[in-house]
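In the previous lecture we treated proteins in isolation. Real proteins rarely work alone, and many bind small molecules. This record shows how such a complex is specified: first the sequence, then the SMILES for fe (ii) ion.
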Amino acid sequence: MMRCFTLYSEGSHRWLLFGQDTDANEAAVDTNQVAVSANGSTMLLDPGGMELFPAAMGALVHEIDIATVHNLFLSHQDPDIGSALPLWRQVVAPGAAIHVPELWTGYIAHFDTDAVLSPIPDEGGEVALSNQVKLRFLPAHYLHSSAAFCVYDPIARVLFSGDIGAALLPAGATRDIWVHDFAAHIQHMAGFHRRYLGSREARDAWIQSVMHLPIDILVPQHGLALRGQDVMRFLDWLSGLSIASGLDAYRRGIASRP
Ligand SMILES: [Fe+2]
Ligand SMILES: [Fe+2]
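The predicted 3D structure, ligand included, written as tokens:
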């Protein structure tokens, strides 16, 4: 059973997270699938891999009319992000836009050669769900993928951070979706960030770009969501993390999965 968590809800404007599938195959890394809705229009963020499509679809249709999904977003090219794209395309609104980093269009086409992709240019972009709710694609290049984007909602003050903030938690435990003890949570994030984030320069530029944004909730594609003071605690921790270089992490034998 895949679980559904409400991250934000104000009238028709909702952020829902689908994840922590209790029947998931442990060989596949655990992922969070996110849906943002406003005024009868929905965008799916990193809708996930083939392996969990039936569970994700089953959980989603309990909460959202699948015909309202007019937009899909893939933060980068990894299979855990969007290898189920050809399956999602069969059930969402006909002609739904598929927003992917421009750099990766030719690679994502290997999941789904018939898909018509909407390339996101390197500098980012914006998509309106309603007159008020506009979702911004913010560059997160080299974190970890050479072209990656986060999604920011200035009204809900939610940042979907893709693989930034990813945590790998012990399998099988039923848990809340929120981090409650940031200091204790670090151990679940550190290995991934040190091995997968290979550029300090990219890390610093990204932190500079999001520091000034009002963010109440930061939700990554793996692990738990952060809210309130924990968002700043996370940015602070990341800014001081010794990520050195990809080679450094590999030489130290840091081999955490995504
Ligand atoms: Fe990734
Ligand atoms: Fe990932």
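Summary for your notes: Helices lie at 53-63, 79-82, 85-91, 105-108, 182-196, 200-211, 229-240, 246-251. The chain has one domain: 3-123+136-251.
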